[in-house]
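Usage

Read records sequentially. Each one opens with the input sequence:
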Amino acid sequence: MKLNSISIRTVFKHPHQFDFNIQTWCIQEQYWSYLKKYDVGQFRRIIVRVNDTNIITEYDNIIDEPSNDVIAINKYFDIASFLNMNVFEKKRALLELLHNCMLYLAGQYGWEKESLLNAYHECVESNLEYKFKVKNKDFKSPTKEFIGYIQCYWDIDKFTATGVILRKDEHPLRQEVIMEIEPYHAEFIYYSTCKWDDPYTFSLYSKEGKKWSIAITSKAQPFVGLYLL
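and closes with the structure output:
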């Protein structure tokens, strides 16, 4: 089966369960984004479950009995130290944790490892910043005069979506943050789409039909010095 999701979380009712779990989304989603076609045999979901009590050292790298298409691996991780790190250090620690667990599982189940190494290096090369366009594409306006896209940034403490409109010659006309939410609420973006509502309004639509828009006037001129994400 193809890998459908990866999650990093604490054991249930850990004192820092919420504070830790909300900060794992950026790296688990970035790493997984390079593994959407990765074959993990009978599984579809992988859970990395961390704890920092002394007893867990005896069960480090212990794999739970598989449940249907879910496999979970237990790992010792110094959660208190993690919470005191700066943002980049946290991302790097999460990447090392996740990558080492994935390599261990690959060794146990005979999965190929080259894709995992590639995912790791892609994360490092991007400086651990998970940025992407919705549907990985630009959208031309009905009149072909403008180009629109939604740039997403999944950071450790928030998820932002920025609407961008360019002239067809790629001169920037408008850039605006249209959404800023908690990182654990952003999975819907994978199932969202974009379209031009009219020649001057570009919108992001959730699967349920919720809309966020960015618009220009018919006489819009380029913004001098506008920095594109």
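Summary fields computed downstream for this record:
- Residues 87-109 form the longest helix (23 residues).
- The chain has five helices and eleven strands.
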